[in-house]
């Protein structure tokens, strides 16, 4: 019990030390007691500071003097926590879309990964692998497609396009938010400009980006008077924030660009299925074009989309095995439909129920 309590206390102390952001020492121009210093330290941390180059005088006009405020410093941990949550939000919405569509695409991909690991490790012959796919993966995927169709759900691909659009919008909004949070008074395209400044030897004392020393104004009340004082604040963490935010800026820009490309790719793939159909034909590698076209009609656009997802997430080889096995399963189902046996689950025909 004591070890558990000690561990809890240690973790709490560590988290408190991590989350606490010291404002730094104050270089006060006035003679102040330690209590006043503590008060000013807390006041400037809450109220915020502003940057003025140290070789320039302070303007008497408060608005002009505070043209370049440093408002992000105390909010960095909270901003990063919110951004992490927002990056996870599209995935949560996609899970909801899968539930609405009636087909568990995420579960199907995980199932395929598991089966492919088993088959790849235990079966060394093509016929044995095909048998494993026909008895397990193909019937699992095909029964899922049929169940979704019975629920009148044919729009899994459209749901995914909506998800990619949301993901793209979220990525760009986060990128813009980060850019606005840093409030560059000199540049609009923040990251490359900072890199160029560092290359040219222009440091924070000139550019004002992530300054180590800033100014803070506070009012000192005295009997029958209010005196405005200005102190210097040392922002220790800006040494690290500069590197961290440079990395995050380029990373978020990269994520936004990839999300945009992904959105356009799936939009075109959903509207124009020629490439997906050609991929299926290459997987089957059959001369009987009539049989292939019949399978493509049975597979439908939702089936094409599922095979595409499996191909992208797991690989072309397992997707080709699955396509061949699904053709056999689909033809068996089509014969069962013509014989009036369509109500029977195809999973019952495998040696192993999934």
UniProtKB/TrEMBL annotation:
Organism: Ascaris lumbricoides
Gene Ontology CC terms, in alphabetical order: gap junction; plasma membrane
Record-stated family: Belongs to the pannexin family.
Stretches that traverse the bilayer: 72-89, 157-178, 247-268
Function field: Structural component of the gap junctions.
BP GO annotations: monoatomic ion transmembrane transport
Compartmental location: Cell junction, Gap junction; Cell membrane
Gene name in the database record: inx
Protein name, per record: Innexin
Topology of the protein relative to the lipid bilayer: Multi-pass membrane protein
Keywords per UniProt: Cell junction, Cell membrane, Gap junction, Ion channel, Ion transport, Membrane, Transmembrane, Transmembrane helix, Transport
GO MF annotation terms: gap junction channel activity
The keyword Repeat belongs to this UniProt entry's keyword annotation: no
One Pfam family matching this protein: Innexin
InterPro entries: Innexin
